[in-house]
Amino acid sequence: MYGPLASQLFEEARQDVYRYSPEPFRLASGKESHHYFNCKKITMIPDRLRLLALTLRDEVLPAHKLQPVAAGGLTLGADPIAIAYALVCAERGQIVYPLIVRKERKDHGTGKQIEGEHVTEGEVLLIDDVVTTGGSSLQALHTLRQAGYPVAHAFAIVDREEGAREALQAEGVELIALFRKSDFAGNADQGARP
User: Fold this and answer.
1) Exposed site from 4, 17, 93, 174, fewest CB < 10 Å?
2) CB burial class (10 A; 0-12, 13-18, 19+) of residue 108?
3) Would you call 124 helix, strand, or coil by DSSP?
4) Each residue's pLDDT tens digit, 96-149
5) pTM score over 0.85
6) The CATH number of 4-185 is which of 3.40.50.2020, 3.40.50.720, 1.10.150.130, 3.40.630.30?
């Protein structure tokens, strides 16, 4: 665990975020799993979202010597994280632009697929709430890179440890996960309930 803020967030949220069920859940990746992570129980609860943003600003990114100039990912999982992170950075006078990446280009108005300031210098942090195979993160990564955003690191609240790290690494992106499935599930894969 990164530090006291990360530990506090884990203790406050773990009962709400993680569920184990003998009946498998269908995931966004199309896979089935007995482990379900609902990170909206962090990102949609204001005090937990703020704690997450502070953890990212004060513990996670300093540990990796990163100071992104923008942060975001595929809507909806990344949106509250990117905006909260930008706000806590602004409290210290640091400008970090939040980015929202749509799954598809708008068919009206300006036709944008990415909302937010266009930056081509400095680090852009790719964000997701939960990663399994990395499909959503890869979709956002390709959209951002095609638009000229420099991305070399990704952040997720939970890495389900099912291939996302390797998929992102193959694209030259390091995955930084606050928590891993094994932090919550222990040895649940061997049949024991957490």
Assistant:
1) 93
2) exposed
3) strand
4) 999 999 998 867 776 789 999 999 899 999 999 999 999 999 999 999 999 999
5) yes
6) 3.40.50.2020
